[in-house]
Predict the 3D structure of the following.
Amino acid sequence: GSDGGSGGDTDAGGVDQVKVGVIPIVDVAPIYLGQQKGFFKSRNIELTMESGQGGAAIVPGVVSGQFQFGFSNFTSLLIAQTKNVPIKTVANGVASTGEQGKDFGAVMVKADSPIRTAADLVGKKVSVNTLKNIGDTTVRESVRKAGGDPKNINFVEVPFANAPAALEEGQVDAVWVVEPSLTQVKAAGGRMVASNYVDAAPNLSVAAYFTSAKLAGEDADLVKRFTEAINESLTYADGHPDEVRGVLGSYTKIDEKTRAELTLPKWPTEINKESVDTLAKLGGQDGIFDGATPDVAKLLP
Amino acid sequence: MTRGAGLLGVAGLAGLLVLVEALPRLGLVNDDYLPPTSRIAAALGDELVTGEFWRAVGDTLTGWAIGLLIAVAAGVVVGILIGAVPVLRAATASTIEFLRPIPSVALIPLAVLLYGTDLGSTLLLVVYAAFWQVLVQVLYGVADVDPIADETARSFRFGPWARVRYVLWPTALPYVFTGVRLAASVALVLAVTAELVIGAPGLGKSIAVAQTSGAVPLMYALIAVTGLLGVGINLAARVFERRSLAWHQSVRGEVPA
Amino acid sequence: MLEVSSLNKVYRSGAREVEALRDLTFTVDSGELVCLVGPSGCGKTTLLRCIAGLLEPSGGKVRLDGREVSGPPPGLAMVFQEYGRSLFPWMSVRDNVELPLKQKKITRHRRATLVEQALDAVGLAGTESAYPWQLSGGMQQRVAIARAVAYEPSTLLMDEPFAAVDAQTRADLEDLVRALWQRLEVTVLFITHDIDEAVYLGQRVLMLSSSPTVVQDEITVDLPAARDQLHTRADPRFTELRTHVYEQIQAAKLQPGGAGASS
Amino acid sequence: MLEVSSLNKVYRSGAREVEALRDLTFTVDSGELVCLVGPSGCGKTTLLRCIAGLLEPSGGKVRLDGREVSGPPPGLAMVFQEYGRSLFPWMSVRDNVELPLKQKKITRHRRATLVEQALDAVGLAGTESAYPWQLSGGMQQRVAIARAVAYEPSTLLMDEPFAAVDAQTRADLEDLVRALWQRLEVTVLFITHDIDEAVYLGQRVLMLSSSPTVVQDEITVDLPAARDQLHTRADPRFTELRTHVYEQIQAAKLQPGGAGASS
Amino acid sequence: MKRVAYVLGLPVVLFAAWYLLSAGSESFYAPPLSKILESFGKTWTLDRFTADVVPSLLRLTAGYAVAAVLGVAVGVTVGLNRWVRATVEPVLEFFRAVPPPVLVPVIILFAGIGDGMKVIVIAFGCVWPVLLNTVEGVRAVDSIQIDTARAYGISGPARIGRVILPAASPQIAAGLRQALSIAIILMVISEMFAASNGLGFTIVQFQRSFAIPEMWSGIILLGLLGFVLSLLFRLAEGRALRWYHGLREAQRRS
Ligand SMILES: Nc1ncnc2c1ncn2[C@@H]1O[C@H](COP(=O)(O)OP(=O)(O)OP(=O)(O)O)[C@@H](O)[C@H]1O
Ligand SMILES: Nc1ncnc2c1ncn2[C@@H]1O[C@H](COP(=O)(O)OP(=O)(O)OP(=O)(O)O)[C@@H](O)[C@H]1O
Ligand SMILES: [Mg+2]
Ligand SMILES: [Mg+2]
């Protein structure tokens, strides 16, 4: 039910029906919070959240105009850019806390593991949620910074949710996880060996909200209103962590104890362009762009 | 007999529950990852009282039922048409074999492209997957017509429609039933998978949310619900089958002579 | 009129090749009742299938009323040797008998009458609602006969239709077939192994040789048209004829194939 | 010795209830050849199935050599009325005949001999490698007979085994059965609709009433043990006996059920 | 000649239609067929074959074999015994209705994340058509055939091997045929989790990295793979069920 991407359905009151494709995880808490707080309604936007398991389901939806906006990590967006997928970011999504040991994503090992530092990961089996994406490129950077050879890490794909079990059962030597699986691993006695986002770049921008190039061109006003609303939401979320932990209960099934304990990411409104450049560089080094160079400027607003 | 069979079936399911309770309790698996039945049941109990849960079940069943209906209707019609006309069968065989193994999951981008997270996406995947199940069964069923029975019909100059109606269809019916039962569960599997991956509303989406949230008992509770839906669907199919296949050897055999 | 001319049928499957019919030529006039006898495996069923248009001959022609047979001609009814498999197990006895009538677009009322009469005639009144597989072999065979009889065909092909019934029932059914034939002037081709039956029933008896098959001999049964079980079978001419047929069949078994060597 | 005592069988399915056997009692001595005749649908096949342990009686007992029959007893062979369906279509004629022998753990060499002899005896030499469905009805029936013959059973149950073969072959097969019986001292129970055949073959003929079924009558065939088609059938005593049997069957058809009312 | 025309006719027509209809396509996710074919040649090189297609095929074969053996074995047991059927049917139906993707975590718990897990996922998914068809096929064996076997003392393994399985084989074949394409589908699904090579993994990877023509070329390869496998299956079936096809066609064609 959409009119081909030129903005959502507009009803008589001038309210735009907007669908946003998101992954129902911690990272998108601000948009749910903003919806609760009425930041979108006040800008005549009626939000519907559509959840998908990842970019594979969200990007096509945005490109075809089924969703007006989507949420995705930067590496995926950069890959899309090299393939000339007609999309453009509109606002920052989520960023690393920038603090070693206190980020919302980390490489974890079992308490009794011989792995002490990122350099020890060389030659080991490390799980990431998707191969050739932000996880493995940033973990490689951690290893590189610790003085190891990142070529010899044996990455395997394990969904975040299954990573704690895989680590526990000894099926992998280390896992890269984000919240809330991170808290789960910690609770099971896991030990942190690297904060890969922090190692990759200071204040790394991890993900962004994006729209199709078509919508960006045709309905600049909607995009502008959406961006403003998101930015207000991001700022509010950053300032009210307790409310964030509260809103998590509304769209996820994370139990209350974990919600209280988990490390929240940062939600700055500005996309850290240098960090995106770094991601582009790292991706290029690891060959995930098939030799192409992403045009960061073209992707960012 | 029917009562006895029902009791045995319940016993079988109870055995499964006991096993799942025992495995983590005995420390054979970590109860964080496979919680005992009692914890799963408790999570399910919490869920049963929420409207959200029932809406999810309703959404899933809607997608399932519509998809299955379309798939079965199309599968039966196309199957009989192709099966009964040798030329068509020869001409389409290779195409069918080519299209059949294309996984529905590979169609996800296409589905999202066309329908977003609407019911249409789920339907596309469900119909695509379930259709082949019915079609292949119908094709084998049509091939199983007893030549003498067919010749009898031909010698009495039955028209094409009468031959389908009175000879082909009853012969193929047991195969069709197997096809429908296969399709019913494949459709359920696909409905849930589509929701899981695309995020269309329904049980699958709930499972995905529970999964990413690390709510393990809830996840198993929801999985159990899909399984139970399957059991219910099969039960209904069996009853229906016993009614309409009373003449068939396999049902005849059920009644001790 | 039914004309069979130089009919030849060879079954081929893999390495095996069987010449079931070598060269058959004969005619049956409209309204005639002809019996066919021949040793087991000589090709009688094959011949009947070709006449019914169910099997394509390898050579030669079958013409019915001047038209070449390529599919089952209208107004034809056939009782198959495999009676058990030719009944539809998913239908009650009544439905089995009624179905061809429906196809013939006979009114519901008339259908009911025909079905009832036919089942009655074969001694199966009372089993209408049973499934065929709930009946004994002989009863199944009689259902198949009732189906053909109720159809009121213009051509009736019967392949050992009384093989599974007892002597008394057999006699009754023989009279039933003759009565039907006389009432409707049906062209009947009747295969049997019972030589007495062939002579009792037929106006003519065709004898086939053993495989590869040709028409070995034929006799015209010059018994009076009004026959009955007691008197006809006691007629000395009857005995003469049956002896002749018996001898011919003996001969057929000994020197197979008209032209010569076997396959 | 085979003892059948107050055997009763009622088929129940849904609303339909058929009392196929009411109350059957008779014995067959070891090594005896008994023929069973009775109107179509009277329960002969049902009786045979009960004796073979394939069907559980509703009442009464079957004992073979003193042991109650609850499943197929060893050394039993049966020729089914539905000969076509009792052959395995996925096996060649040879394999069909050989399979039971394998189960009997007979050496390969001996098996080959037995199969060859049996097929030869029923006139099917040369069709060993064909599938049953490539054969004519009569040929299929003879394969089923060959299977039973090759098995060298101690008890042989035959359900209208010659219904689909021609007169000449039938005579040959009758002699085959008698020869087998004399050679191996088999206990044979033989169902037929052909009264002449019953008298020609049997030492005794049991006549069943029509349904609900009891033993209507039985006669001992006091013809000499050495029989042949020409002389035995010409014997006046033969004619006498067959007339008696015929009359009894006529009577059976008219007043069914020993005790009284029908089901 | 005629058979070749039948085999190739419709696919050629469909491909031509696709080619023409997509020729001017601007849609990112539905590129022109020409582009897909071009990337097909570039993508599926010999290296790729040994690195991705071969491991996939091995898993597929293993999973399918396990499913076939298990499906027939359990199917015969369940089909022959009313009480066993009544007891286990609900449990089987329960597992049958559970989507393999959500079961993957449980399977990972017991089987790790190696090839074993993938084989189990494949087997788990494609055992059902075999099982169901075997059960139905076994239940539908002609009663006269069973009686014949019983009367002649054909019992135990011989009864199953020589009578029941052959009699049920047409329906078992239907199940095996269904299972084949499901196995391919599950091969892809299993490689979506915890894999680092394989055809399914590669396709999913293409999809994630927006290499859409390559993704479509992978789907075409899957189709071709399915086609070739089913051709092999048909050959095997034609051989094993020669009696059946002969029986069914004897009167029709000759
Ligand atoms: N489908 C077939 N494939 C191969 N050979 C066949 C087929 N059907 C029949 N035959 C062969 O053709 C010959 C004639 O068979 P047919 O059934 O016509 O004999 P018949 O005269 O009806 O015999 P019967 O009296 O025993 O029924 C036989 O030798 C038989 O083996
Ligand atoms: N499976 C069944 N279900 C219900 N009724 C049956 C079943 N089998 C047989 N009958 C009934 O039992 C009676 C006896 O059947 P049976 O087959 O024993 O007769 P028969 O003496 O062998 O007859 P025929 O000479 O015609 O073969 C018949 O009335 C038949 O309808
Ligand atoms: Mg015949
Ligand atoms: Mg009988």
About this structure: The longest helix of chain D spans residues 236-254. Chain D touches chain C at residues 11, 13, 16, 18, 37-46, 81-82, 84-85, 129-130, 134-139, 142, 160, 163-170, 193-195, 246, 249-250, 253 (CB under 8 Å). Residues C 11, 13, 18, 20, 38, 40-46, 81, 211; D 134-139, 164; E 250 surround adenosine-5'-triphosphate (ligand 1) (CB under 6 Å). Residues 9 and 126 of chain D are 42 Å apart (CA to CA).
